[in-house]
């Protein structure tokens, strides 16, 4: 029997976010879908997420915007995008001709702006869902990142929830000091699903010029280098919430993706991996099906969270682990 | 005691069910990815190499000068260095269905590529980007190359000679050893050189010897480091009439995706921030903010 790869990322929402398979192209790494249309069979993906859309168009940061780091990269694109009005003028009509679900990632610097964008998207055709990027500075709170604070994250989620019935994914920031608390807060505020992790804030210094390499000083770290952090946070969040969790961070192949599913992810997103290996997401769909069949599973649902027996973090536990390692 | 050491790349080292891949970029399975074999390696321009690799006939046949390929520069199973490296084509060979790239070890990716030997496999993505264009009425072409920036201009000069255009090819390098040997260019081309140390040709920059050729030229092409473009503009602008001749430059940017998705390689132009991998790497010098 061919294993069933389909997943529903919004089981509590009548509008559903049912995907044929659990492999999603991540925001920022897949443009608006059309960029990869001539390179891979975009329609075979479970879904894709647009670049981050903002209330107004943005030119983005100065160059350099990307720096390679050990087994990873730093990016500070600066949300270059046509703005919500520019977006709706072009992409819903294009996406309507596609079978693959398109999810829109939104970023803003105030609660009202998030809600205004969501209200506009609610009236558009061919939008399968909204992914809220809470890793943005909250101008009303002196630029403190929404996603680092459970209450601020919940406030954004609640405001967006109140203006749209679209399936709502909140993309968590790994910079939060208690990411499980943020996850619970956005679940309570009406999130249909939670995706994580966004990039980690990092820096690299140009020793010769005695300056940061990125024009923006800081950027987001992604790629295989961050995978263990991502797996830990997905495991931790999956143990804390009931809504579906979408895992991402450094997935470069089948076994990376399986780590996320076993930790409790219902679906995965591929970001940086697509840059270096455009065929990866499509290959992953086939590899997943093959692996499930080989291991005797009839659906992807059957492996979600089976390595997750609750998240434990405490000093005695850590000490024991070090001792066991003979350090 | 700790268990036996495992690969620092975690789970991928113990994947028994994943098909073996020849290079770090994954199996070709997309329309612009292909697996390529290194056919020959030849020393050139001092410490650089000409790396000739196999390519599908359809790729070679439709390739235009200035286009580039994103090449994986690491072994299978390794994720470091992670990003592909963009290389424009030095020469395309239809008869042997192969491509030649000019590689100088500079960073980790190019150093890995410079160590390849015949028989090695490479994961290629391309051709990517736009290309140089030779306008129908442009008979006299001036090409200006800085160091390894010479690569796409060699292919362009081949095209130009095939189209019976007149070409003056100016190259600048640090020293004589860093110059392209004249036999690499068609004998129909006038080849002018400049070296920083004066060991061959003009003692100084390539942009210092082009003054006489600018009024002659119908179109100018340049590829080199970014400061060269600033100097070029300063030299060419006062010599132009009605903004002619126009100058096409190939801009080098570090990039991630190569297909316009990440917007990490943008060039600031008079029309905004434009992805150099899709709308470039060739730009009109007048439209680039330097």
Structurally, the number of domains of chain A stands at 1
CATH topology of chain A: TIM Barrel
The helix content of chain A, as a percent range, equals 25-40%
- Helical segment tally of chain B? 4
Beta-strand level of the residues of chain A, as a percent range?
A: 15-25%
| Largest Cβ-defined interface | A-B, 54 and 47 residues
What sort of overall outline of chain B do the alpha carbons produce when their principal axes are compared? globular
Give helix and strand order of chain B, one letter per element, not per position: EEHEEEHEEHEEEEHEEEE
Structural class, judged by helices and strands of chain B? mainly beta
Q: Give the number of domains of chain B.
A: 2
Question: Mind telling me the CATH class of the largest domain in chain B?
Answer: Alpha Beta
CATH-scheme architecture of the largest domain in chain B: 3-Layer(aba) Sandwich
Going across the major beta sheet of chain B, what is the strand order? Answer: 10-9-8-7-11-12-15
Q: Kindly, what is the distance between the CA atoms of the first and last residues of chain A, rounded to a whole number of angstroms?
A: 48 Å
What is the H-and-E element order of chain A?
EEEEEEHEHEEEHEHEEEEEHEHEHHH
The total beta strand count of chain B reads 15
């Amino acid at each position: 029997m061919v294993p069933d790869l389909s997943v529903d990322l919004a089981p509590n929402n009548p509008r559903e976010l049912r995907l044929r398979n659990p492999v999603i192209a991540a925001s920022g790494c897949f443009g608006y879908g059309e960029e990869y249309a001539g390179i891979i069979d975009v329609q075979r993906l479970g879904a894709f997420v647009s670049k981050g859309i903002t209330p107004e168009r943005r030119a983005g940061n100065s160059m350099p915007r990307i720096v390679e780091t050990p087994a990873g990269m730093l990016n500070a694109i600066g949300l270059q995008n046509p703005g919500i009005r520019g977006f709706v003028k072009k992409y819903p009509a294009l996406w309507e001709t596609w079978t693959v679900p398109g999810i829109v990632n939104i970023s803003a610097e105030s609660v009202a702006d998030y809600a205004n964008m969501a209200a506009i998207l609610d009236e558009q055709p061919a939008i399968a869902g909204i992914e809220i990027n809470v890793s943005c500075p909250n101008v009303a709170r002196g630029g403190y990142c929404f996603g680092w604070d459970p209450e601020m994250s919940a406030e954004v989620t609640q405001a967006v929830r109140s203006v749209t019935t679209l399936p709502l994914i909140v993309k968590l920031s790994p910079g939060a000091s208690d990411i499980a608390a943020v996850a619970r807060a956005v679940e309570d505020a009406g999130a249909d699903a939670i995706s994580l992790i966004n990039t980690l804030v990092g820096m690299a210094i140009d020793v010769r010029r005695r300056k940061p390499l990125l024009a923006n000083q800081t950027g987001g770290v992604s790629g295989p280098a961050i995978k263990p952090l991502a797996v830990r946070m997905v495991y931790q969040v999956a143990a804390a919430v009931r809504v579906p969790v979408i895992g991402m961070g450094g997935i470069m192949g089948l076994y990376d993706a399986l780590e996320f599913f076993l930790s409790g992810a219902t679906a995965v997103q591929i970001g940086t991996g697509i840059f270096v290996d455009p065929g990866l997401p499509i290959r992953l769909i086939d590899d997943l099906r093959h692996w499930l069949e080989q291991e005797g599973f009839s659906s992807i649902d059957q492996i979600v969270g089976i390595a997750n027996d609750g998240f434990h973090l405490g000093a005695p536990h850590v000490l024991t682990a070090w001792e066991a390692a003979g350090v | 005691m700790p268990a036996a050491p495992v690969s620092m790349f975690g789970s991928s080292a113990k994947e028994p069910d994943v098909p073996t891949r020849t290079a770090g970029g994954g199996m070709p399975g997309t329309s612009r990815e292909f697996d390529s074999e290194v056919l020959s390696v030849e020393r050139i321009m001092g410490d650089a190499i000409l790396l000739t690799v196999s390519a599908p006939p359809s790729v070679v046949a439709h390739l235009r000068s200035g286009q580039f390929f994103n090449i994986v520069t690491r072994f299978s199973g390794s994720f470091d260095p992670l990003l592909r490296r963009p290389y424009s084509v030095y020469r395309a060979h239809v008869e042997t269905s192969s491509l030649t790239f000019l590689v100088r070890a500079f960073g980790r990716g190019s150093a890995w590529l410079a160590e390849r030997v015949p028989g090695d496999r490479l994961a290629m993505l391309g051709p990517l980007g736009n290309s140089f264009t030779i306008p129908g009425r442009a008979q006299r072409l001036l090409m200006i190359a800085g160091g390894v920036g010479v690569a796409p201009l060699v292919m362009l000069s081949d095209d130009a000679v095939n189209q019976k255009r007149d070409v003056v090819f100016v190259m600048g390098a640090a020293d004589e050893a860093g110059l392209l040997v004249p036999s690499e260019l068609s004998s129909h081309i006038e080849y002018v050189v400049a070296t920083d140390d004066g060991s061959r040709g003009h003692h100084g920059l390539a942009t210092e010897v082009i003054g006489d050729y600018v009024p002659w030229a119908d179109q100018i092409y340049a590829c080199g480091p970014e400061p060269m473009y600033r100097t070029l503009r300063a030299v060419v602008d006062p010599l132009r009439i009605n903004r002619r001749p126009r100058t096409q430059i190939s801009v080098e940017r570090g990039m991630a995706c190569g297909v316009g998705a990440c917007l990490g390689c943008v060039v600031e132009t008079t029309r905004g921030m434009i992805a150099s991998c899709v709308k470039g790497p060739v730009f009109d010098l007048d439209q680039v903010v330097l």
